[in-house]
Design a protein that fits this description.
By secondary structure, the chain is α/β, with parallel strands linked by helices. It starts with 24 loop residues before the first helix and ends with a helix. It is a multi-pass membrane protein.
Length: 826
């Protein structure tokens, strides 16, 4: 006899619904009246079970009734150029540059060319990152199954048209709005849209909202709203945007720039008045020195370098088949101190093997094999456990499946009812033994021994009542134990060792038996794998749950809602939590975690809510992602200190010049040279260097606690040298000599700041510092460079005085940095 599953979608006909309208027409009208947040049951619409015809699809495409929402909403080239060019500080620098082109030699306008080059680099790097992201997004794009002309095929989300019949299975995400046309125990989770935690059982005629996902059962729905009209379209578009928002790093830099602007405006006004009015100097010379005082106040390269570092991080991760759906995820992973792992698909590969079947209660072995074969063929989309049974016990097609109960993570079992022929009927459940059996059942001891070996055990039990009964598991008669062996990922042990070495706590959270999960974790060398806890005994109080989470490493029998609660409990203790998973039961926890990581082969729902998708399905990629995040954040924190030290000493020098009513000591060319050698070039290399230190919070405080004392010391030392030089030199060319002496002091102090930041030293870091020092020395000794930069040391006494002051200031820097580290720890 040929098997006919009761959930066959093709069985439903237009006549069954009592309507003869054109395919999808009734559904489209009904769907237009839906309240997306509080949907109501509608009459079952008329649906052609074969779906749309090719002619109907072509007609809808011609009318523009296509799901035209872009897969990714990464910035266009025009938006990238606009974002990098039209900035507040570029505007200020651009105006100052135009002024300098009219009043001073070209060398005093070098800062303008540097900004043009920097902006070009930023545009190119972000464009590279965009292309990498977009190409990876196509690879990882959800491919919904659509039935047309009676044939089911996967198509791109953007190819769905109005009225298409879209099939659904466990883990599938609804990509457009629609109305259920076919349903077989179809349960849909709408919590990401409505906040309702419990899955909703759907029947024909019920609405389906885009952004919801299937947790159990199967079915099909007709698309009633596509494109930007779909309920969650705008939400999905924003979620996948190429963006740097909601990032502590970006927020911190914005805060710093806001304070810099407040300081810069009054200081610049005072400097202008001082140089143009009070001193009454030569107009062009005064303008040049005024601009020379304003330009270095702006940490213009800091924003650029941050964008470049993020963009390069995206490109690097892209080469490892890692799709970063939200750029802050790179930063977030750098701060992670707890990683929650779902065992199946993360520590273990998707496949399993049946090692043995142990009958219980004298059940006949041949009969049990027939039951398992029928159960395996009853589900059109078997999970890994059921697939192993399908492979081991193929169905002979003699039994007729009359009803199915799809697997649910909440209940931990599935079921099916069969007509065995000859008037015999039976109902069977297959699932977690400790859920289907009472606590004192003697079979649990045998199961415990198997679990301790890392084996997975399912119980086959005969149900006494109908499958849709509320207490179907109660009184079920145990018939057999199905023992499964899980395939460990070959790279999992090495990855767990990496996290242990990096002091990142690893928590294994699984729906499987806790002892079995602990045994698997123990085989992989997970620290604390012996500390297992059954989540059914987990306290419900958030504080007590947080304590249990911190004290244990392995958790079994965890429900989807518990996963979410466990993530929240860890976050309540100040932990930054990353959650990995590939199943629909992980979606809620992935969404609430600080960083959600999904496997590329995972369900559409998990890929949709995760910030990072591992397209190669390799858990071993995660350390690379963490390392990339640490590199970006750690290095940006380093170089930000360089940029803001310059801002502090520039503002303070301007204030001292105004207070002492003297000429500003520098022309723009001097500070362009200093910025290039002590900040620009070194910062570029330092920002891209390896850095494994875990990122810490309070970015602004961490940076400013060093930048302020460094900037103050540099400004005071430079101004002292300048005042001494003013008394030492006189006559024609005195100002140039004074400027050269002050420049020497400022360069040496800035180089010492660079030398501190470059620690711990490696051969290339030492080489970088030495190269910058040699470059400045070349400027001092090559005649045409002396003239170009207006730098010439006069005599011996004053240059050596400048060096002596710089040495004292450098000693002060060492003391200040040590003092700050002790007195103001972060």
């Amino acid at each position: 006899m040929t098997q006919r599953a009761s959930h066959s979608f093709g069985e439903q006909t237009p006549e069954a619904h009592g309507s003869t309208g054109p395919p999808g027409s009734a559904m489209i009208d009904a769907g237009a009246e839906l309240d997306p947040v509080h949907p109501v049951r509608l009459p079952a619409p008329a649906v052609d079970p074969r779906g749309l015809t090719a002619a109907e699809v072509a007609e809808r495409i011609a009318r523009g009734e296509v799901n035209d929402v872009p897969v990714r909403s990464s910035r266009s080239l025009r938006e990238i150029v606009r974002a990098n060019v039209f900035t507040r500080f570029n505007l200020i620098i651009g105006v100052l540059w135009l002024i300098m082109l009219f009043v001073a030699p070209i060398q005093d306008g070098l800062f303008g060319f540097v900004i043009i080059a920097n902006t070009g680099i930023g545009i190119i790097q972000e464009w590279r990152a965009k292309k990498t992201l977009d190409s990876l997004a196509v690879i990882g794009e959800a491919k919904p199954t659509v039935r047309r002309d009676g044939v089911s095929a996967e198509i791109s989300t953007s190819e769905i048209v109005l009225g298409d019949l879209v099939e659904l299975g466990p883990g599938d995400k609804a990509v457009v709005d629609g109305t259920v046309a076919e349903a077989d125990s179809l349960e849909i989770d709408e919590s990401l849209l409505t906040g309702e935690a419990d899955p909703v059982l759907k029947h024909p005629g019920d609405p389906v909202m885009s952004g919801s996902f299937v947790v159990a059962g199967g079915g099909a729905f007709t698309a009633t709203k596509v494109g930007r009209e779909a309920y969650a379209a705008q939400l999905a578009e924003e979620a996948s945007r190429f963006t740097l928002v909601q990032s502590e790093l970006r927020t911190g830099i914005s805060t710093i720039l806001k304070y810099v602007t407040w300081m810069m405006v009054p200081t610049a006004i005072g400097l202008i008045v001082s140089q143009l009015v009070v001193k009454n100097n030569d107009f062009k010379e005064s303008v040049a020195r005024t601009v020379g005082g304003i330009v270095p106040m702006i940490p213009e390269g800091l924003v650029l370098l941050t964008s470049v570092a993020f963009a390069i991080g995206v490109v690097r991760l892209g080469r490892k088949q890692c799709l970063v759906q939200e750029l802050p995820a790179i930063e977030g992973l750098a701060r992670v101190d707890v990683v929650c792992l779902d065992k199946t698909g993360t520590l273990t590969e998707g496949g399993m093997d049946v090692t043995e079947v142990r009958t219980l209660g004298g059940a006949d072995d041949t009969y049990i094999r027939a039951v398992l074969g029928a159960l395996g063929s009853s589900d059109p989309r078997p999970n890994a456990s059921l697939q192993a049974i399908v492979d081991a016990y193929p169905d002979d097609g003699q039994w007729l499946c009359t009803r199915t109960l799809p697997f649910s993570s909440a209940r931990k079992y599935s079921g099916a009812a069969f007509d065995e022929g000859g008037g015999r009927e039976s109902s069977w459940l297959l699932g977690a033994p400790d859920v289907l059996l009472p606590e004192q059942d003697p079979a649990l001891a045998e199961i415990e021994q198997l679990n301790e070996k890392g084996l997975r055990v399912l119980l086959l039990a005969r149900a006494e009542g109908p499958l849709d009964g509320p207490d179907i598991a109660t009184g079920a008669v145990p018939s057999a134990l199905v023992v499964l062996e899980q395939r460990l990922r070959p790279d999992a042990a090495e990855t767990l060792a990496y996290f242990a070495d990096q002091r990142v706590a690893t928590k294994v959270i699984s729906g499987d038996n806790a002892v079995s999960v602990g045994a698997v974790a123990g085989k992989l060398g997970l620290p604390g794998a012996e500390h297992t806890l059954d989540a059914r005994r987990l306290p419900t109080d958030p504080d007590d749950m947080a304590t249990a989470m911190e004290e244990n490493a392995v958790f079994g029998r965890v429900t989807p809602q518990q996963k979410r609660d466990m993530v929240a409990a860890l976050q309540s203790r100040g932990h930054t939590v990353a959650m990995t998973g590939d199943g629909v039961n992980d979606v809620l926890a992935l969404k609430d975690a600080d960083i959600g990581v999904s496997m590329g082969s995972g369900s559409e729902a998990t890929r949709a809510v995760a910030q990072i998708v591992l397209l190669n399905n390799s858990f071993a990629t995660l350390p690379s992602v963490v390392a990339e995040g640490r590199r970006v954040i750690g290095n940006i924190t380093r170089v930000a200190t360089l940029f803001l030290t310059k801002t502090v000493y520039s503002v303070l020098l301007a204030v001292l010049v105004v207070c002492f009513q003297v000429d500003y000591p520098f022309l723009p060319r001097h500070l362009t040279l200093l910025s290039t050698l002590t900040i620009g070039v070194p910062a570029f290399f330092l920002a891209l260097a390896p850095n494994k230190e875990r990122a810490h919070p309070h970015f602004v405080r961490r940076v400013m606690r060093y930048a302020i004392p460094s900037g103050v010391i540099a400004a005071v030392a430079t101004f002292v040298t300048y005042l001494i030089a003013r008394h030492h030199y006189s006559g024609a060319g005195a100002l140039d000599a004074e400027t050269s002496a002050a420049t020497l002091t400022l360069f040496l102090v800035s180089m010492w700041v660079l030398a501190i930041i470059a620690r711990p030293y490696t051969w290339w870091r030492i080489g970088l510092v030495v190269a910058m020092g040699l470059a400045f020395l070349i400027v001092l000794v090559v005649p045409w460079l002396q003239n170009f930069f207006a730098l010439k040391l006069v005599g011996a006494a004053m240059p050596w005085t400048a060096v002596g002051i710089a040495v004292v200031a450098s000693a002060g820097l060492e003391y200040a940095w040590r003092l700050v580290s002790r007195r103001f720890p972060v």
